[in-house]
User: Fold Aromatic ring-hydroxylating oxygenase subunit alpha from Derxia gummosa DSM 723.
Amino acid sequence: MGNVIDFQPSAASLDALLAEVARIGGQPLEDAQTFPPAAYTHPGLFALEVEKIFKPGWICVGHASQLRGKGDYQTLNLLGELLVMVNDGSRIRVLSRICPHRWAPLVEGCGNARSFACPFHKWTFGLDGKCLNAPLMEEARGFDPADYPLPEYRSEVIGGFVWVNLDGKAEALAPQLADMTASLAAWETDRLELAIDLQYECRFNWKIVVETFMECYHHLGAHASTFEPNFPARMSWVEDTRPAWTLGHAAPRPGREQSAFDYGLPHFPGLASESEKQAFRLYHVYPFHLMHAMPDRLIWFRVQPVAADRTLLQTYVLVHPDTTKMDNYAEVMKQQSEIQHAINLEDIGVNEMQQIGAHSGMVRPGRLSHLEKAIWQLNRYVAGKVCGARAEA
Ligand code: FES
Ligand SMILES: [Fe+2]
Assistant:
């Protein structure tokens, strides 16, 4: 099947595509359609999404559990930018990891460092990005290492999650997410520990990742034996539109015992209401921050769009700190990792199918079920950003 999606996207006119995106983004829910297939394949639309959505927006790039100690760092490539997230001892910073001398990337991967020394000519930078030493530069007139720090990206840490705004001009994020953060209070997201990290190089558009994540209609097919028995598609629903985020719920099949909500890990101690104890919540912060809140874990899907038909996807399972102390923790998490991977493959399989279908000349916008309200919400968001005027409800 792989060669099918190696075909180049059609040379559909970007203007015609944008007109369709605007039309579909303005539909009422009852008339909702998918975007046209070119919205998932056209490099011109992807370039517009980068310029008008990703760079001006907020992208979640890390979690405090990866950066607890002074000097802990994590690197990331994001839309051509090379980042390093680092704990400088007082706060988490997101710095450029490109040396300001002749632009070599300073550091790769993750680890702990006291400073960053460039492998090219050994300029050295502190954890706060200051240039500490630039050898043999005495004869460069007026040169002062202080004028050459590693540039810092604008960032915020909210509930332990590290967010970056690449163009530096976005509105502050924390107030936009205040109600979401409150809804997750019982999960104590800033205290969570990273338990599972699974990575996938996906051959489909970033919107397909979000769409499938947010609708439970596909429990009928893709998750027929995993989610459908306890969380049937027909009982799922999505909350009304908010500017910065939305929330979907997979409600349990009526009459399930509480034990149906035990997945192998201790529940978060602070869960109080039934809605928390039976939670199957799907959070989506625009454009593509995805979290699945369950009674015993919070799963964060880190999405990195690479091209119109390429997306890196990382699944992080985060657990309460007490969970890491349970007997046979390593063995339990190995088993949980296999379960999570199998479920991820159920989604990746259908996502690949959708992307393959999008390359056919016979495909036109499909109709959406009311269970796919979050796709309708995403369409409105994308159309509003790339086409200008946002459709009114
Ligand atoms: S490129 Fe980094 S020191 Fe020269
Ligand atoms: Fe799924």
The chain has two domains: 2-56+178-387, 60-165.
